[in-house]
């Protein structure tokens, strides 16, 4: 009997005008999003490879002297991702340009600037279409599924049979989800075909898995709206009232609540102005300066002749200073991130925000990527220094002291000046989240989405069980 | 008879669930967010005041006309509470200097760039989305419901023109929708005027009145679209579905889509290209400047002092100092040098401006294309009208930049006038001839002392007659800019109502 209800629901939906309209709307949006993405992605890849090549070419020139390798100021940009098709995560407006040497690190900077005269617009990606348009379609297709049948009198007819109400509800739910699945899967297919035909970027195996996770996530998200629609439909006596209520719920959940993040961020935690950072950096360096003696005798002294100074003490002192400054930069960066996260946390009462965050994490874009990139750059700095120290061991003339003072290192011959094989020098390679890492990051989001599902299912079930069919 | 129909419809509407929910939502949202937005405005105003005061304080420290390079700021618009527009995205300060001509540009990067993941929020958003949804919900079943209930047939059995029925419905709809719109506006204004910082001038009230009219026109155009669908379809369910799809297109798809489409249709110059062009101009500038130095007598020893204004801005820092004390030969050098530098910098200011303008124009052209495409959605038209009225649109920023550029001309003329075309000593130094002669003869240690003496007797310039920078959004101009949009909203209304009228004439009441 369950399958009969599902079949009836699907057929009824497929023949309706709203289904045709949704199909047209979503497929054209998916196609448009894919075309836009292909163009943008190609351009971004070009930019990325131009900038990266320039950086590597300059870096290569440093390979003539080992000591220069570590002090070269590298410019690293985040690589444009194919998965931005699924969830772009506002990457264009997030800082993704990293400037660092083997020791020091700056705050990440913005790369490029979009048209200042255009008002801000959302990323046209899968998660935009699904969170905005599909949730809307879910409401439009569910609003009359219970109260509409009551009005037409067919609900009574169904209930005269010996079918439990739970089966009817589940049948309706399954039927609606399957009908929604058709435009969703067709749209995704169109989008993928456009992207793969354009051959803008290779789609690897890992990418497929992540895309599938995002699709699964989308179904979980849409299921919330279907259940919510069924719940409201089972509470309302007339479809018109039900649609009015659903429309206002949609506006609040999908548009208004996500817009509040900015306020929440501003109110919940205050960002520090950049002048504070500069001040804190100077103070940190001064603190180390004042305790220079802690690092050994004459650690504060510097002269071209190593005999006049105490090189090991100087090295300890310099490294302590750069570490102190880096810590300040890192904590400032963390504060900026925390401010943005605070706003996001508060808006998570909306499933749309939860869905956005989770799909961004699966796609490896957005803020989680910024955090991970910063961490990776820090790890790379250690790797680069370790490499230089390792190479330096083979040179009997050097002092074997690596510290953050390029002039002194050069003058004292503290690190070997011999040429190195550039191919062996470690280069920065961005590492994507593995699936298990992303899963660990989104586990709370998944939990929240499941909870929304559960709550609305229970609500729909209870309301429908007590629904007055007259 | 029209009024009877209107009164009946109006009373029926007031009692509906959708009207109550929509109105309450609208009012609650306005009541929550206007104070938050007003607080945001207060903070920005405070920052503006601080910056202006800082600039004033520095003006009182200027000791030579050469380093008179104030900065002018753009005051935040109080009506940005209603429509944020582009205000936060565009530059709000301009350095006034020989070497740079102010022009519209992107604002400074956000302090915390990670906050850019959040969309913008203002009162306009509530109207754009909640009120338009309400308008649609009120309108979708006005005809089809009466048909379904059979009352339409009864009504038309009377000697009643169909046009009158529709006019009555329109009147009822406008009245119904005016209720939440008016309440929301009144609450918003009460909250805004009760906040400490926001003072509304007479011209602001005129603009607010126009905003109210624009909001009514917008909501009414959404109502007329619902009415059209209601007249076109035989069941209200169908009208609702059609209306909702139109609404989601107008509200969510077209505004973002127009920007994307504009980017394809009208590619804009990249900021990198402009920066490269400016960098090459800077090289030429340096070359011209050193060529200029060859033409003048070499200077002697001197002690330079920095001006009070930050050496910020393109090519600002290199010129932000003056000779506190120097030898007579050095002084002659400075006078020649000052005139030469001013000439070269004026020449290059035009070139830098042209390079910048090329970039800016291409960005603005793209934005114009986006706006034109957006005109098919009443939401975008309404958005444009509101930001023009609030003075937060692109055009207002442009005219502010023009005012700043004009102020630069004024300031340059003022400096030229005060310094006898950059040739009088007051342009460079306040040291006397005797001091300069003594300085030449003195030893190094004596010279240091002499500089201190000069530093003590020099006083800041009397800049009381310095013309102040003033800019206020011209109400007439902003009305004119909003005029097209307002007209378009009227056209939307007439068009949709006309179409509904035509459809209703042939409507089958069975």
**Gyration radius from CA atoms of chain A, angstroms:** 29 Å
The strand order across the widest sheet of chain A is: 1-2
**Beta-sheet strand percentage of chain A?**
under 5%
Q: What is the number of beta strands of chain A?
A: 2
Give the arrangement of secondary structure elements:
The complex is a heterodimer of chains A (470) and B (510).
Chain A: H1 2-14, H2 17-62, H3 66-71, E1 74-77, E2 97-100, H4 126-142, H5 147-152, H6 154-160, H7 165-198, H8 205-235, H9 239-259, H10 261-268, H11 274-290, H12 311-347, H13 351-363, H14 366-392, H15 406-412, H16 435-465
Antiparallel strand pairs in A: 1-2
Chain B: H1 2-14, H2 17-59, E1 71-73, E2 93-95, H3 123-139, H4 144-149, H5 151-157, H6 162-194, H7 202-232, H8 236-265, H9 271-294, E3 302-306, E4 321-326, H10 328-374, H11 378-390, H12 394-418, H13 433-441, H14 444-457, H15 475-505
Antiparallel strand pairs in B: 1-2, 3-4
Could you explain how this protein is built, in words?
The complex is a heterodimer of chains A (470) and B (510). Helices cover 68% and strands 2% of the residues of chain A. By secondary structure, chain A is mainly α. Chain A has one domain (2-113, 122-465). In chain A, strands 1-2 form a two-stranded antiparallel ribbon. The longest helix of chain A is centred in the N-terminal third of the chain and has 46 residues, at 17-62. Chain A starts with a helix and ends in a 5-residue tail after the last helix. In chain A, 45% of the residues are buried. Chain B is mainly alpha-helical and 510 residues long. Chain B has one domain (1-510). In chain B, the strands form two sheets. Chain B has a two-stranded antiparallel sheet with strand order 1-2. A two-stranded antiparallel ribbon of chain B has the order 3-4. The longest helix of chain B has 47 residues, at 328-374. Chain B is elongated, with a radius of gyration of 31 Å. The model of chain B has no long low-confidence stretch (mean pLDDT 88).
């Amino acid at each position: 009997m369950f399958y009969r209800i599902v079949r009836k629901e699907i057929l009824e939906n497929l023949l309706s005008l709203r289904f045709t309209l949704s199909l047209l709307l979503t497929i054209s949006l998916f196609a448009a999003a894919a075309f836009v993405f292909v163009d943008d992605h190609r351009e971004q890849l070009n930019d990325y490879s131009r900038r990266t090549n320039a950086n590597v070419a300059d870096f290569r020139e440093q390979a003539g002297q080992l000591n220069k390798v570590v002090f070269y100021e590298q410019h690293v940009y985040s690589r444009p991702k194919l998965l931005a098709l699924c969830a772009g995560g506002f990457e264009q407006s997030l800082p993704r340009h990293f400037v660092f040497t083997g020791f020091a690190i700056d705050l990440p900077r913005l790369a490029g600037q979009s048209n200042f005269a255009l008002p801000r617009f959302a990323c046209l990606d899968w998660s935009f279409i699904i969170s905005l348009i599909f949730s809307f379609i879910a409401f439009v297709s569910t609003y009359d599924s219970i109260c509409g049948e009551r009005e037409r009198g067919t609900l009574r007819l169904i209930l005269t049979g010996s079918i439990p109400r739970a089966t009817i509800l589940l049948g309706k739910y399954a039927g609606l989800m399957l009908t929604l699945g058709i435009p969703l899967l067709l749209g995704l297919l169109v989008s993928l075909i456009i992207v793969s035909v354009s051959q803008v970027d290779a789609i690897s195996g890992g990418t497929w898995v992540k895309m599938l996770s995002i699709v699964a996530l989308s179904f979980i998200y849409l299921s919330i709206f279907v259940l919510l629609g069924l719940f409201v439909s089972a509470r309302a006596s007339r479809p018109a009232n039900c649609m009015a209520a659903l429309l206002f719920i949609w506006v609040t959940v999908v548009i208004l609540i996500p817009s509040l993040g900015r306020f929440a961020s501003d109110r919940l935690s205050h960002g520090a102005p950049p002048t504070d950072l500069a001040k804190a950096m100077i103070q940190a360096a001064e603190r180390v300066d004042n305790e220079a003696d802690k690092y050994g005798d004459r650690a504060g002294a510097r002269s071209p002749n190593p005999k006049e100074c105490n090189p090991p003490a100087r090295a300890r002192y310099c490294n302590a200073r750069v570490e102190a400054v880096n810590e300040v930069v890192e904590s400032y960066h963390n504060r900026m991130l925390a401010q943005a996260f605070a706003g996001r946390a508060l808006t998570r009462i909306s499933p749309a925000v939860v869905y956005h965050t989770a799909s961004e994490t699966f796609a490896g874009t957005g803020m989680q990527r910024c955090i991970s990139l910063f961490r990776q750059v820090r790890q790379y700095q250690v790797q680069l220094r370790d490499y230089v120290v390792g190479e330096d061991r083979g040179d009997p003339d050097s002092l074997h002291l690596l510290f953050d003072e390029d002039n002194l290192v050069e003058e004292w011959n503290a690190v070997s000046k011999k040429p190195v094989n550039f191919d062996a020098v470690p280069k920065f390679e961005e590492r994507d989240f593995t699936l298990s890492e992303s899963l660990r990051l989104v586990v709370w989001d998944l939990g929240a989405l499941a909870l929304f599902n559960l709550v609305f299912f229970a609500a729909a079930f209870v309301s429908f069980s007590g629904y007055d069919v007259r | 008879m029209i009024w009877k129909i209107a009164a009946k419809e109006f009373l029926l509407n007031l009692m509906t669930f959708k009207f109550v929910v929509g109105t309450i939502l609208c009012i609650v949202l306005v009541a929550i967010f206007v104070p938050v937005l007003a607080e945001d405005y207060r903070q920005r105003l405070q920052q503006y005041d601080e910056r202006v005061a800082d600039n004033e304080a520095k003006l009182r420290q200027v000791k030579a006309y050469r380093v008179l390079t104030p900065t002018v700021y753009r005051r935040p618009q109080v009506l940005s509470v209603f429509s944020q527009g582009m205000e936060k995205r565009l530059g709000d300060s301009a350095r006034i200097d020989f070497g740079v001509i102010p022009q519209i540009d992107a604002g400074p990067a956000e302090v915390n760039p990670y906050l850019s993941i959040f969309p913008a929020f203002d009162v306009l958003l509530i109207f754009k989305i909640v009120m338009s949804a309400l308008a649609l919900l009120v309108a979708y079943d006005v005809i089809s419901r009466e048909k379904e209930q059979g009352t339409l047939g009864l009504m038309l059995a009377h000697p009643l023109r169909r046009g009158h029925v529709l006019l009555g419905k329109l009147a009822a709809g406008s009245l119904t929708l005016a209720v939440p719109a008016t309440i929301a506006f009144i609450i918003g204004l009460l909250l805004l005027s009760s906040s400490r910082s926001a003072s509304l001038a007479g011209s602001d009230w005129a603009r607010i009145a126009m905003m109210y009219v624009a909001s009514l026109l917008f909501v009414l155009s959404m109502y007329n679209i619902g009415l059209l669908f209601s007249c076109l379809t035989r069941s209200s369910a169908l009208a609702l579905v059609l209306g909702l799809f139109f609404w989601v297109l107008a509200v969510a798809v077209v505004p973002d889509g127009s920007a994307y489409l504009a980017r394809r249709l009208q590619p804009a110059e990249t900021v990198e290209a402009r920066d490269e062009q400016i960098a090459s101009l800077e090289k030429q500038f340096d070359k011209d400047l050193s060529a200029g130095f060859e033409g003048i007598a070499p200077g002697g020893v001197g002690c330079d002092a920095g001006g009070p204004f930050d050496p910020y801005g393109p090519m600002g820092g290199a010129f932000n100092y003056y000779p506190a004390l120097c030898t007579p030969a050095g002084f002659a050098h400075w006078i020649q040098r000052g005139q030469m530098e001013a000439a070269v910098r004026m020449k290059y200011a035009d070139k830098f401006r042209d390079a910048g303008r090329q970039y800016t124009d291409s960005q603005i052209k793209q934005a114009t294309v986006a706006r034109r495409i957006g005109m098919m959605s009443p939401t975008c038209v309404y958005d444009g009208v509101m930001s023009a009225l609030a003075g937060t649109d692109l055009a207002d920023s442009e005219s502010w930049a023009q005012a700043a550029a004009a102020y630069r001309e004024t300031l340059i003329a003022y400096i030229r006038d005060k310094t006898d075309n950059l040739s009088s000593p007051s342009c460079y130094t306040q040291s006397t001839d005797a001091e300069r002669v003594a300085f030449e003869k003195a030893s190094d240690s004596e010279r240091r002392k002499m500089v201190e003496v000069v530093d003590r007797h020099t006083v800041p310039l009397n800049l009381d007659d310095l013309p102040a920078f003033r800019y206020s959004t011209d109400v007439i101009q902003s009305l004119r800019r909003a005029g097209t949009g307002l007209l378009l909203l009227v056209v939307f209304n007439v068009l949709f109502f006309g179409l509904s009228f035509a459809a209703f004439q042939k409507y089958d009441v069975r």
